[in-house]
Amino acid sequence: MAAKVVDIRGLSLTFATKDGPVYALSEIDLTIRRGEFVSFIGPSGCGKTTLLRVIADLEKSTGGSIAINGLSPEDARLQRAYGYVFQAPALYPWRNIERNVTLPLEIMGMPRAERQARARKYLDLVNLGGFERKFPWQLSGGMQQRASIARALSFEPDLLLMDEPFGALDEIVRDHLNEQLLRLWDKTEKTVVFVTHSIPEAVFLSSKIVVMSPRPGRIIDVIETDFPRDRSLDIRETPEFLKIAHRVREGLRAGHAYED
Prior knowledge:
Blueprint: E1 4-17, E2 20-33, E3 37-41, H1 48-55, E4 63-68, H2 73-78, E5 82-85, H3 97-101, H4 103-108, H5 112-125, H6 141-153, E6 159-163, H7 171-188, E7 191-196, H8 199-205, E8 208-212, E9 219-224, H9 239-259
Parallel strand pairs: 3-7, 3-8, 5-6, 6-7
Antiparallel strand pairs: 1-2, 1-4, 8-9
Helix pairs in contact: 5-6, 8-9
């Protein structure tokens, strides 16, 4: 069995506000193993992005425990154990694509020649070879998001955290990037944690789907899939795919019923 990358036990998070406490996450138990592609899905406000941010040490849990490769989230962050891809590409408009990708490497003090080699490697991996000298405004939304993925991979973390990276894109572009992301996962053998609102996207991409309830976020269901790694979009028409999508949908409905 593959090693644990993320190990969460009894995790809760409560925000203190002027209007009283906001219970964001409650009693989360989850194990993510090396090489898995795990999607968090649930209604808006359910805490799926908050859970991703706890893994990334961008939020602090208020109860329970979490370990990343056996380390605290803070120590894992300091050791650059993960790359983070935000909902928006977050590229600096005054830096060309190569210099956007190499920004983390500059901060790390990596020599220029190695930074440039890394940029070429990962831009090629996301099919952006030849766009090194372009600026973000010269690229489409999908291309900008691919550049942000290359940046997250540039310092070669084992864990890739992705917060609805394709949510703002149209369906055709999103489908294309889903296929590209699967190929990237297959080539790099990274562990991926992915937040989405889309049932078809979650089922298509994932080896494990984590279904969450409305706030406070709880895990309703954890669904393992067994699709081939080289799958194409055609798999969405198969009985196996539709069966898993139905189970995800039923879990989401059950979560709302629980709230009521």
